[in-house]
Amino acid sequence: MLQVSYIRDNRDEVLNRLSVKNFKHPELVDNIIKLDDDRRQTQTQLDSIAAEANASAKKIGDLMRQGLKDEAESIKSQSNTNKEQSKILSDKLSAIEILLQNELVLLPNLPHISVPKGKTPEENVVALEHGKIPKLMQNALPHWELATKYDIIDFELGNKIAGAGFPVYKGKGAKLQRALINFFLDRAGEAGYREMQPPIVVNEASGFGTGQLPDKEGQMYHIGIDNLYLIPTAEVPVTNLYRDVILKEDELPIKNCAYTPCFRREAGSYGAHVRGLNRLHQFDKVEIVQVVHPSHSYQVLEDMSAYVQSLLQALELPYRVLSLCGGDMGFTSAKTYDMEVWCAAQARWLEVSSVSNFETYQSNRLKLRFKSKEGKSQFAHTLNGSALALPRIVASLLENNQTETGIKIPAALIPYTGFEWIN
RNA sequence: GGAGAGAUGCCUGAGUGGCCGAAAGGAACAGUUUGCUAAACUGUCGUACUGGCAACGGUACCGAGGGUUCGAAUCCCUCUCUCUCCGCCA
């Protein structure tokens, strides 16, 4: 959520940057400023009436104590009219505040100056490519056929017990999952991230804090009876650990990581592009989250990007890094890099990680602040990234590493799997 | 699921209608001092909104929301959460 004071002071800049994000309702900005004017005016009126009422209540108290009942009574009637007025004003104030809040949450985060213009994924900028595109043998198979061939992932079985998009991993398939999770967690630990194990359901306040609610309501599984949401990413619980928190400056940066299953309804997604592991309702992911001082959040974004790349390099997967254009970036992000891995049999790039700087957009919602040495509190910057999401990593490992005799496990992973081949 | 107790500032904890934005202690921070990895003393020490160039003011907040009252941390109602005991259970 953007800060109203920032919008007021930088109206033109806000409009400019929203246009980079291809935002469709720039009129909201002036609306918000006008509502805030209203809010301030009403607030001031209310405050002065309340001040009057407080003063006369105090006076009544004094008079009563001195036993001057009649004089006290005469002031009471004045207090009554104050009361009516302040009731009207405070109703008006809360109505305005609700309107203001409702409009404020409709504004996406402002893109960083370095974010390329553009509306569609095609306009994302390829920041770099790494690794060699493998040449596959003649009869190479897509991962969903390999999964069946080696009996390591069973989509039908998952379909039976839960539904489409909930695969069952079997044997070496299941072990590969566990190996990847441990590999990613160990690496994150070495990179200074503290491992956390959060709940995989969250309440409404948490959903709001990181920006999933109110606008992405339909993408999360909702447990109506308890009003809880299955997390779409560990970002939600791990970032919300710091909701309503005022940190000390020297506690920054905070670096956390967590493995969780992630749940996404992905309503409305069908077709060949979502076959196999490409898009699931439940998948596993290790997430890294940082809370940092605003002065170096962009350096940290680069660090996180480099870290994610180091994982892909260790797994010997060819990848590219995209700097997302304004139109393709998430609602809450100020700058995002996507890492895509080459899936050789499908001959396409698949997103396996997304690393973003949210600047103060989340921390304003979360009320996540830090207190500087001078005693002033200000919003911290939050960042997060997938490090990494498993299914598409598995897809590309299977497809890229397939041979006549089986699927070769990359060297870095063998200590974790305990086997070198899936065959 | 049943019964009971409770929710106050960074923490502990007092406060049952006006003198309470809130005692006291602790923690933290700053300073003074003592010749020593510590003590003593003094001071500072919640958040947000708002007025003002500023100095300095105003308002709101004692789990959340509503009510009673001239006046609520304190009384009433609703909700949420926590704890204890019992039941169930990995």
Description:
The protein is of the alpha+beta class and 423 residues long. It is built from 13 helices and 19 strands. The strands form 5 sheets. The chain has an 8-stranded mixed β-sheet. The chain has a 3-stranded antiparallel β-sheet with strand order 5-7-6. A hairpin with a 2-residue loop joins strand 17 and strand 18. The protein is elongated, with a radius of gyration of 27 Å. The mean pLDDT is 91. It binds one RNA strand of 90 nucleotides through helix 3 and helix 4.
Secondary structure layout plus pairing:
Layout: H1 4-9, H2 11-20, H3 27-66, H4 69-104, E1 125-130, H5 143-149, E2 153-154, H6 155-161, E3 168-169, H7 172-190, E4 194-196, E5 201-202, H8 204-209, E6 222-223, E7 228-230, H9 235-240, E8 245-248, E9 254-263, E10 282-292, H10 297-314, E11 319-323, E12 335-343, E13 348-359, H11 361-366, E14 368-371, E15 377-379, E16 381-389, H12 390-400, E17 402-403, E18 406-408, H13 414-417, E19 421-422
Parallel strand pairs: 4-9, 8-14
Antiparallel strand pairs: 1-11, 2-3, 5-7, 6-7, 9-10, 10-16, 11-12, 12-13, 13-16, 14-15, 17-18, 18-19
Helix pairs in contact: 3-4, 5-12
The structure holds one RNA strand of 90 nucleotides.
